[in-house]
Amino acid sequence: MESPVFNSTLALLQERPETRAILMRITEWEAAHVQDEFFRLGFEWDTFEPPIKPQVLHMMHLRGILRQAYKSRSGTGYLTMDPAAVLEALRFAEADHVEADPLEGIPEDLFSVVIGYDDIKSMMVKALEAEARVNWLLVGPPASAKTLFLLSLERLPGAGYILGSRMSRAGLSDYLINFKPRYLLIDEIDKLPSKDLAPLLSLCETGRVVETLYGRRRSVTLDTIVFAAANRIEGIPREVTSRFEALHFKEYTRPQFAEVCVRLLERDDHPNDSWPGCCEVDVGLRRVGGATRVGVVDSSKLPALLVDLACDRVQLGRADLESQR
């Protein structure tokens, strides 16, 4: 559930965990008295035993969690602004987040679709097994397996994939605070505007993410490891690259690229496993630097067709990249 009340309640629970018991008492009271004749007047600070401090109720009202149902010289009655959103935030905050054994959480075939780069694969797996808090920056031309690495890492428990060109400062802060990813995977980080880098810089440096807006403040400390990919390192501010260990990727040869295409088609999550014959395939060329769709074709011709289409797209991408330099 995404609503202002949900976000405000979740932020309060993260900043002041002791308010959870108060909100539980409020929601339980509302559920028990919703049919009462004077329910619309709400509850007051001394409705409960022990009483809830008036300043706490006032603070929740200012945050948009409670509304004033009734007000007079002698007192103020409150009700939750959105009972369902408050309950959802309480459930979200109390959900058990069981830490997975890092060895059990790493699939043996984590990088099975990636051709070559055995040294990088080995280095990453060892770092994951040791839970080393090292942030990695994958740099290389289009179709050099950077996105394939990120999509492979997305299989890890607690991993979250985002696109730098579609990311904002507020959106990143909200995502980190609400979902607390164990692994943050950022593709196209070189396309992230400089004005939106602050949450990422703080996350990489101290693990803290702080959001300060009018009427509310949220803060969380994370052990998130960041994996990012970029075509060029020159366009990334130095304050960003200094927080990463850079890995430079070389271009795939045509035979290597052909093998990548075939492996992608043979994955278990492929939409049709009836080889040989005819099949309808949503080609995952976006995973290797290009994007297109192939309709119903003779599957015996599909691998060659894939390679031709992919190479054309890759050459266009590389030419475009060269023109920007």
Could you provide a short overview of the structure?
The protein has helices spanning 4-15, 19-33, 54-62, 83-94, 102-105, 118-129, 146-153, 169-179, 198-206, 238-241, 254-265, 302-324, and strands at residues 66-71, 76-80, 136-139, 159-163, 183-187, 208-213, 216-221, 225-230, 245-248, 278-281, 294-298.
What would you note in describing this structure?
A hairpin with a 4-residue loop joins β1 and β2. Strands 4-5-8-3-9 form a five-stranded parallel sheet, with helices on one face. The chain has a two-stranded antiparallel ribbon with strand order 1-2. It folds into three domains: 91 residues; 147 residues, 3-Layer(aba) Sandwich (Rossmann fold), CATH 3.40.50.300; 71 residues, no CATH class. The two termini are 43 Å apart. The chain contains twelve helices and eleven strands. The chain has 325 residues and is α/β, with parallel strands linked by helices. α2 packs across α4 and α11 packs across α12. Helix content is 40%, strand content 17%.
Order of helices and strands: HHHEEHHHEHEHEHEEEHEHEEH
- Biggest sheet, open or closed, and with what strands and sense? 5 strands, parallel
Backbone shape:
elongated
| Low-pLDDT ranges | 96-103, 269-303
Helix content: 40-55%
- What is the residue-averaged pLDDT? 77
Named at the architecture level, the CATH assignment of the largest domain is 3-Layer(aba) Sandwich
Report Rg: 26 Å
End-to-end Cα distance, whole Å, is: 43 Å
* Strand order, largest beta sheet: 4-5-8-3-9
The percent range for strand residues is 15-25%
User: Which structural class matches the secondary elements?
Assistant: alpha/beta
> What is the CATH superfamily of the largest domain?
P-loop containing nucleotide triphosphate hydrolases
So what's the CATH class of the largest domain?
Answer: Alpha Beta
